[in-house]
Fold these 3 entries.
Entry 1:
Amino acid sequence: MELEKYKIEAHNDDALQTHNRRLAFVAAEVENAEAIIQKLVDFQVAIPSWALGTGGTRFGRFSGGGEPRNLEEKIADIGLLHALNKSSGAISLHIPWDIPENTTNIKALAAQYGIQFDAMNSNTFQDQPGQELSYKFGSMQHVDKAVRQQAIDHNIEVIKYGQALGSNSLTVWLSDGSCFPGQLNFRKAFQNTLESLQQVYAALPADWKMFVEYKAFEPNFYSTTVGDWGQSYLYASKLGDQAYTLVDLGHHLPNANIEQIVALLLMEGKLGGFHFNDSKYGDDDLTVGSIKPYQLFLIFNELVEGMDAKGMNHATDLGWMIDASHNVKDPLEDLLQSVEAIMITYAQALLVDRKKLAAAQADNDVVTAQEVLQQAFRTDVRALVAEARLRSGGALQPLALYRSADIRAQLIKQRGAKTVATGL
Ligand code: LRH
Ligand code: MN
């Protein structure tokens, strides 16, 4: 479903006066407004191909209708998000949920919408129909070499799909672990997993990155073989320079200081990217910034400080991806809110008075240090984010236009009320 340009222009004309008033106010407050707007224009967040349908839990799934029936319609949905906010210019595919039958056609279709292919995701946490060997007791950790080889072959196949589409990174999330004490020899599980990852690493094209995603628990509930940032860092360090850790915000034990983890991984040059979402309890995969917006700000504060300290390019040197699932919201509205939260938080982190913060830290002036951070967090930067969208040809208020243009109703009319998208 195309969103006609004239509809975006008409929407912006109606909202322009209010926008300009708000922009003038914040631009008067913020000295580096122009630089921030330009950084926002360049900043793109990859949308997960597995989060365009209504997710669910083991207790139930309540479809909202009009869900994409195939990869082509998923790319069209991301094209729609990108037309609205001009910040969703990439898709992250999950294999085999989204196998591109004809990579040339899929690549051409994505290009039409201005969509790039971000990290590819492998899947050795489910058994596929007709699969020879089961991953019930793990994949790369498995005691049976043949199961490990099956997982290695799958990851190498995923790299090939990615090469054909123009992706240049592979995310490996392993659900491997154990549910009961005694079930697993932790040392052998680590070594089997490392040897397996080394074979996948050896198949990486020279310009590719491998992201090792860690997770504390689920689906295993006693141990996870890539269970925290330290274990992921250990694997990535032993694998080589093309291997990095991937931080999924929902994959930590309660009250973990994620911003400190991010600062140290960045310092070590081993932070590869993010799966943004939010959570209150476990891996809830909720809308970014919906539960702990200040934690998200503190993470972006460390990112900006750490990336500038290393002279890194904010837009291209790390993998910026969302990983969410939607139980009660329209998937596209949820993703629009998540991208907006990321852009707002990035803008606030760019606002932090770094000189004043460093001086306060040098003086152990704890109060001023907090004031510097909260001054930025309490600044309403939404007009800067909207201005970046306007300059990129997007909508000033994406969610409002998505609703006023009645897009979900048109998708249901086009696809039906009972369509089910592959994914979570
Ligand atoms: C695991 C995870 C991983 C994906 C999956 C869909 O919880 O975060 O990144 O493969 O979700
Ligand atoms: Mn994830």
Entry 2:
Amino acid sequence: MTVLPAADAPIPIFTTLKEVYGSLATAAKHAERWDQLVREFETKFGHKPTYVARAPGRVNLIGEHIDYADFGVLPAAIEHDILIACAPRPASTVAAHPDGHAPGSVVAENLHTRYTRQVFMPTRRHTLGDDVPLDAVRVAPWHLDIDKSELRWESYVKAGYYGVLNHFFSPSSVSSVPVPVDILVTGNVPPGSGLSSSAAMVVSSTLAFLAANGIFDGEKAPTKPTKGELVNIAMENERRVGVNSGGMDQSASVIALPGSALYVSFVPSLHAEPIGLPRDAVFVCANSLVVSNKAESAKHQYNLRVAETLAAARLLSHRLNLQVDSTDGDNTKRRLVTLREVLARKSGFYQDEQDAQLEDLGQLRKGLVDVLGIAMDYLLPEFGNRTDISLDEMINKSGMDEAEFREVYLSGVDAETTKFELYLRAQHVLEEALKVLKFREVCLAGGGNEESKLQTLGKLMNDSHDSCHRQFDCSHPKVNDLVRVARSFREVETGRGKGRIYGSRMTGAGWGGCTVSLVHREDVEAFIKHVKKKYASYEGMSEEDLASCVFATEPGMGACVYKFTN
Ligand code: GLA
């Protein structure tokens, strides 16, 4: 097994499309989109782009809603991507724009006609009042207005820009300022479909502003981030649109390599390992057409699940008497604890390099089984399958007082509810983490019977879906219908026997979006035809639209910057 320090690699700067997509054939499919982007950029801005930043969407094969509990996940990048053409605004065109000369001002256009031109610029906010001269105080961080209650396309562009401003244009200096930038965005990752359009937007925006500010060139190049650093910046950036997401989407979008899925783990630090897939395995995505924008519904759905799993971890750690908080004299400093930390502490593996030993997957598995048992012994009799646990009840059993609990658990995670579920959420997370380990192991096992490998992977995917639906309550009736349609392919006569579908599940945050199905390479065409015909919401759609709803995907290349050489 080769473990590449994939997260430590530099962000690639390419000058050909073949490098960007990892193969000539894939590059050829996208060439016209790139040409159009470059042509339109010149028409709209009157000058040529200097770079295109590219970030792909991802499909998660297995490991849903466990990255924010710090457990490893197994996604792959897809071919669909967001492209942002960009260039510093040349002095000759500055006069044509209001505030065109202002440091860091942005004119943002989108090729999609639904999205209108946006002009914005960052400001530096300090808290001492406007009459205090900027150079008399430590200059405050850069600020951009993002209205979380009304997210718009440019909110994601701004979210990406935020990190660039505050990581690369130091708040403590008044001299280092960003240049005015023109950008043009296009993309084919369907929004709200569980294929991570938001991470692709934020990653590509981060890259575009880095590139336009010369961070990949000349004397600034030494400050350029590694892939791992870009993931961390992009995660931080995405929280600016109000989602407490884990790091799976950004890792897949940034670190993925063509031809393999990625096992991404987060503790003791971000680590990504390319995982080869069985030769005959093809993953097919199908869009349920139920749009679920995780940022818009975060308070009641995504962030609530983050709060529930964190609360379950806190209650377990209290019950197990684990020392998770630091003390300073008589003061106890409370902090967030993840389910993985509970496991690490319980197994005696917590902290720094010791924790890395848990990545000896045998240990991790054993620890997971133990903690699952403890969760069942304690959370199950205490709360059972109740979905109406009140905040008071939870606080009572957390070992914390109300003010502390609210501060640590509810102020950092933007969730709104009066009712929580704990046992089923924790059970899902711990069992799903075990499924990921098994999936990874099957993929890595040399030799063996190909058909039985595919069957094992498919069963893990089916079980994962059922757990997302029943225990984590993050599916949607239509997504469940689509999964049923996919699984029913096993009744279809293909001419080579019954249809070889091994497993099907929702992918991504859920509450709508796409499914991913594992299908035998030889049966992919028949499978796609079957799903197009049988899923009720596809009725009456044109072949062209259907083609963008159901498609086979090979693991693709991660994010990069394309540099124009003339
Ligand atoms: C979203 C988040 C990810 C992950 C998935 C669910 O895509 O951005 O971090 O939590 O949901 O697995």
Entry 3:
Amino acid sequence: MLEMKNMKLGPMLLLLLCLNIVSSSVGNAPTCPADLGGDCSDSGEWEGEFFPGIPKIKYEGPSSKNPLAFKWYNADEEILGKKMKDWMRFSVAFWHTFRGNGGDPFGAPTKTWPWEDGTNSLAMAKRRMRANFEFIDKLGVDRWCFHDRDIAPDGKTLEEANANLDEVVALAKELQGTKIKPLWGTAQLFMHPRYMHGGATSSEVGVYVYAAAQVKKAMEVTHYLGGENYVFWGGREGYQTLLNTDMGRELDHLARFLEAAVAYKKKIGFNGTLLIEPKPQEPTKHQYDWDAATTANFLRKYGLIGEFKLNIECNHATLSGHSCHHELETARLNGLLGNIDANTGDPQIGWDTDQFLTDIAEATNVMISVIRNGGLAPGGFNFDAKLRRESTDVEDLFIAHITGMDTLARGLRNAAKIIEDGSLAELVRKRYESFDTEIGALIEAGKADFDLLEKKAKEWGEPKVPSAKQELAEMIFQCAL
Ligand code: XLS
Ligand code: NI
Ligand code: NI
């Protein structure tokens, strides 16, 4: 196993990192506290590699025992007529991989990445951005996702925050080169205290105004970086109690906000897809974008259905009491499946644990939906997933992503097997074949009224109801894993 180099930072850094959570929006602290002896400078430069000893990750096949190799994900291999990398369109989530520090409500951060200096300065943001692109290059993916406030420090004014963002984005643009781009960007409208009642759904008009300005800027930088989508996740767009909430007015405000985003997208010539990411709760008790069906209804009610798609996150699906497969199918059947935040929850824990997906059966179901959807482009799979608090080696960042990518690759291979074999599709076809009849066709065409149906019921008498063959379906599915 690889050893972490540059591990000079001690408990003092832990404390600073901890404080950094609380003060992450405060801005320009000095970059390299002298007493820590960190390997850093004011310019954000870094000597040598961020991940020394970690090679470019290659495909070695299922028999490989190398933790730093793919066993199932073979980027250029064709499955069902499309390269694996084009089915997947994997993306690294900046906030988890480069801002996640292992802190939780009960404990201090546990991760002391060698390039971090315990501040949220502009110089630190730039150094982190360099680490991000080395990581992406070594992992062999072409995409990344970010919130405005993850990648650059906030400011005392909107102008200062925007200037900080511009500086980091300019560097990101340079580091992206021609191959890498954002799968999506988004605005962080949940961390700052001003957003405690929401952004677009805040009871305070000044907050609505500020949120709009922040989204406007985040859309501009996403467009500038060549982003393919733009995400709205409304962590605070909801309520804690209906007693003090005008839900109708808040939902109207949210729709007006999204309408303005659509207009602005057109104004600046951004051709990416706008995505809404449903989540039922956390941090709010009730979030308005509860699940795919609720969000589809909201979009339809406000005439926004053609302007948005959905970003389905598997852990959010289970929080809303659905499987990920259910949410993907609901989105797909409504023509709304745009992107997947690839993660999973824990069956024993009732919150968004954001784990890397390792369940091969779940991945197979996910990929069945993706194949039925004809892929996800211009969306993809964003690893909205983080290391466990107890995983503290730099190489764990790689191992986690490799496992996530391999799991979905295995899912794709299995799903292709199931589709090529055809017996599951045949089981489903047979289950509904009584509708492949004259009367069935009339029903499906909306031409069978109750008089006609009553006549048929009398003619046929008691129907014979066949088995659903669930266990056979499960047997066929298991055989492909
Ligand atoms: C939180 C969400 C968030 C979005 C982006 O639960 O998953 O990370 O993906 O704001
Ligand atoms: Ni997400
Ligand atoms: Ni989430």
